[in-house]
Every structure is written in C-alpha cells, then in structure tokens.
C-alpha cells in the first residue's frame, strides 16, 4: 500500500480550503492500493485555517521537542500536528506500507524542503513532521514532484 497526501488526490484539506490535485499522480496510482491521509485534519485543525510553519528546525526537531509549529497568527499548533501524526500512525498498519508520496513544502508532509518559519515564502532544506515520523520507521518517501523518479525506478 502507498500512503498519499489527501490534498494531492483532490481532497480540500489544505490550510486555504483548497486541494492540490495532481492528475498525473492520480493516473499513476489508479490501480494501486492507496491510503489518503491528512495529518493536519487528523490533528483537529479546521479547513480553512491560518497557514502554519515550523519555527526553529524541521520535522525531526519537532519530534524531539526542539522546534515548534506556529500559525501566521502566532498560535502554537505543534500539539495538533503531533496528534495528527500519531492518529495516522495508529490507524495505518505500517508493515503493509511500501512507500509514501507526500506534498512538498508542507509542515506536515514536506519531503525535501519546508517553509522557513518567517511566513514570507522562503524555503529551507528539511522535512515536515509526518515525513520525519515515517522516515524513522524506514518508509521510503517521495514528494509529488518526484513522480518521474518513481517511474524511472519502476516503483509506479
């Protein structure tokens, strides 16, 4: 089975109330067993909601308690993100997961880069908190921007 960020499959769960439907990815996953997830919704965050960014680190730092996630209004939403990650991990049988395809730049699902915490659109290297948790479980992770890589490696 493949874990996929629900927004990439057309679910309107992003902070702005929109989806990030990726038609190419949907076609590639057509005959695959997938598990759509949105850790932010699982953490009881509303749709829409103020955008949130990781402050002072990356997803691994969040898991270690060394960084926080705050929304643009300054509210600390770290506990919501952690709750959502834990709910997904509890719900999904990780031994059946082949890989995850997640939304790049998200504070939950970013794979290679996330926003830098300044809310000015700047990116930094690092991953989101859900991605970090899956990587700790040794699950291969790809962003939606790496579908070519998945095809070339025969993974999709």
Automatic annotation (TrEMBL):
Pfam family, one: 2-thiour_desulf
InterPro entries reported in the protein's UniProt record: 2-thiour_desulf
Name recorded for this polypeptide: Uncharacterized conserved protein
Native organism: Halothermothrix orenii (strain H 168 / OCM 544 / DSM 9562)
């Amino acid at each position: 089975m493949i874990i996929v960020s629900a927004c990439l499959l057309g679910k309107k769960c992003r902070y702005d109330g929109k989806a990030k439907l990726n038609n190419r990815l949907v076609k590639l996953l057509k005959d695959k067993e997938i598990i759509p997830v949105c850790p932010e919704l699982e953490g009881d965050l509303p749709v829409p909601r103020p955008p949130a960014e990781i402050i002072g680190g990356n997803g691994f730092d969040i898991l270690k308690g060394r960084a926080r996630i705050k929304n643009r209004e300054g509210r600390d939403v770290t506990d919501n993100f952690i709750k959502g990650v834990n709910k997904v991990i509890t719900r999904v049988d990780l031994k059946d997961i082949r890989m995850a395809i997640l939304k790049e730049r998200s504070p939950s699902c970013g794979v290679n880069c996330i926003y830098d915490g300044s809310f000015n659109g700047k990116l930094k290297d690092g991953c989101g908190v859900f991605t970090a948790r899956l990587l700790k479980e040794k699950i291969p992770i790809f962003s939606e921007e790496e579908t070519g890589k998945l095809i070339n490696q025969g993974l999709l």
